[in-house]
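User: My collaborator sent over this chain with a note saying "see what the structure looks like." That's all I know about it. Can you take a look?
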Amino acid sequence: MIFNNQYEQLRIEKSNRLKSLGVNPYPHNITKDLNISQFLKDYEYVKDLEDKRDESKEITLVGRVKFLRLMGKAAFAKIEDESGVVQIYYNKNGIGDEWFTNVKKLIEVGDIIQVRGFAFLTKTGELSLHVKELNLATKAIKPLPEKFHGLQDKELRYRQRYLDMIMNPEVKKIFKTRSKIISIIRGFFENRGFLEIETPMMHPIAGGANARAFETHHNALDVTRYLRIAPELYLKRVIVGGFEAVFEINRNFRNEGMDHTHNPEFTMLEFYWAYHNYEDLINLTQELFQKLLKDLNLPTKLEYGDLVIDFQTPFKKINYFDSMSEIGGISKDILQDKQKIISFLNQNSIKVDPNLPIIKLWDELFDNFVEPKLINPTFITNYPIEISPLARRSDDDLDIAERFEFFIAGVEIANGFNELNDPIDQYNRFKKQIENKSAGDDEAHEMDEEYIHALGYGMPPTAGEGIGIDRLTMILTNQHSIRDVILFPAMKPIKKQDETKEDE
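Assistant: Without extra context I'll predict from the sequence alone. Here is the result:
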């Protein structure tokens, strides 16, 4: 039996007792007139009435009992819905002697109830509902965590997000803000003529980004499929087909490690804009952030833990290699010398494989000495072409990609570039990626010949960008783990004995 501890058994007995009284513990067609926050707003005027009550209007509210105080012939309770908390008062005279006696015994904290009554002000000045009718909406079998300690265990909060939301109202605020962020983004792009589209979640080839894919099997076709690591190659097919401005907000899946900024399942915004370049994307990204801050009513200088992030535009923009010296404090004379880089890394207690190519060593330098210092919004531009297999080469320097990455609070938030639309160049770059994969790079791109065929029909000059919605939400809600902004983050399975212990 899943509900096996003594407290759960007592609640089951109460549920059965209600049934014997002809009361369904799980009725249907439970309605309410308005939510709690609206009630508190609409009936604020009661505070100014002479007798501090308005019995001429009756209101029906529904909420979960979060607090209960019995006082003989009367009771005070706090009920909570999605919008807020309100105090209710009920007594024998209001709901009937017999029902009041049963309610005292059978309704408890955690249950969801429907109450009808009128607004009044208590002696302590709290706007409340004087209950004339009380009905059970849902009987809770599992008791809520103890009131004063609440739900503090982070692991338990992530595993049982529903309980986290019940016990910690601020959690619901985070996810409301996340939803609003996505809504603002969608409206922002639609108002600029972008078309929202959907592309496949299962791909025949894992491509679009350097990452390991989750693999599955389609039984009817008897073929291997990969959960998408990025929608990029399909979105660009749509550009080839004739749409000139498209975006998608959806899930990506990457079979890689987990930490405070990585979850194997995450949400991305990707957009592609024909006849524009990555400088246009930079400007558009700045406009998007201005819109987000305005619509979320956030200040230009935003607190993020111990940091203060300044979102005043224009955001800083600096070349990849210049950032190594100007921000990372790395002498320019070592950047083109592999042995000097390895020596520098070793001197700073960073051990690396001496056989790594120099582009991987640059990554180590950037990741350790530049990225953590990128607190205010910063665009890092002009990446090496070797680590940008889908980006267009610079006309001025064929070793450089017309690409940027966007950082806030030491975390990459976005990646954008002028798209490579030369099918021959793209084919050769895919071939190079295959060589890298054969040499042991598990995250290198596969060869996508069908995509090359699409490019062969001609893709117009296009710029594209991806923005991580989860990381963006972290910044805008002052959260420091990606698991705090994903409703149901990936978690390591727990043993049966641990599950039993959790329930005790």
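A starting point for your reply to your collaborator: The first strand starts at residue 53 and ends at 71.
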